[in-house]
Structures are given as structure tokens and as C-alpha cells.
Design a protein that fits this description.
Structural class: mainly alpha
Order of helices and strands: HHHHHH
Number of strands: 0
Number of helices: 6
């Protein structure tokens, strides 16, 4: 279930990187992709990679975002006029999102088996035999 919740927005936003007509939107969609893939890496147990990957990639996207804005000379006032027409749709999507979050968090989950994560294993490896 969690896999599909993380995988489907990553696939859709990956397609929207290519399909978005506004260059600013096509630069912002990979941020969602990297956040979703970091969630998938956490599910795989790769804690360190899940934390470092978004920081590095989103930093690179911020630089490319600055480059796109400077290169195309996009006027911010034009973007604000277009945003107001999407306000009702975004409000409905936001309400659906919050409804789903409360629905998911309300369900009792089965506890995971106690396992050692990568950071715990690293602690035992580095500090083995030390008090």
C-alpha cells in the first residue's frame, strides 16, 4: 500500500517534467520525484541515501530553477494571474489529501518486526568493544 502511495506520484510527476509547458513547473516536478524516491529508499532500509539524495538533487534543481528564470526572463506577475484560476481545484485536491491522511493515520497498523537499521548496524560496527 505504501509502495503504491509513493510510486504513483513519482511516476506522474516524472511524466509531468516532460509534459509541462511552463519551464518553472517542469523544474519543480522533479522535487516531488526525489521526495517520493527518498520515501522508497526508506522503505528499502537505505536511511543515509534517503536523506542525502534529496538534499543533493534538490540543491541542483534550485540552481537550475535560478538558471531557467534568468534565461527565459519569466515575469512573476504573469504567473500570479494564472494561479488564481486554479485556486478552487487546488483547494479541492488539498481537502482530498487531508481526508486521505486522516483516513490512513486512523487505521491501526501491524507493528513491524524489531530489526536493526543501517544506522544501528553502523553504530555497532564503529563502536564495537567500546563502552
Amino acid at each position: 500500500m505504501i509502495l503504491f502511495v509513493l510510486l504513483s506520484p513519482a511516476l506522474v510527476s516524472g511524466l509531468m517534467v516532460v509534459r509541462a509547458k511552463n519551464p518553472v513547473h517542469s523544474v519543480l516536478f522533479p522535487i516531488l520525484v526525489f521526495c517520493d524516491t527518498s520515501g522508497l529508499l526508506i522503505l528499502l532500509g537505505l536511511d543515509f541515501s534517503a536523506m542525502i539524495s534529496p538534499v543533493v538533487h534538490i540543491g541542483a534543481i534550485a540552481v537550475s530553477f535560478l538558471f531557467v528564470v534568468m534565461m527565459f526572463n519569466i515575469q512573476i506577475a504573469e504567473i500570479h494571474e494564472e494561479v488564481l484560476c486554479y485556486l478552487p481545484v487546488s483547494g479541492i485536491i488539498g481537502l482530498i489529501f487531508w481526508w486521505e491522511m486522516f483516513f490512513i493515520l486512523d487505521i491501526e497498523t501491524i507493528p513491524l518486526l524489531p530489526t536493526h537499521r543501517n544506522t544501528t548496524s553502523l553504530r555497532y560496527t564503529v563502536y564495537a568493544g567500546k563502552p
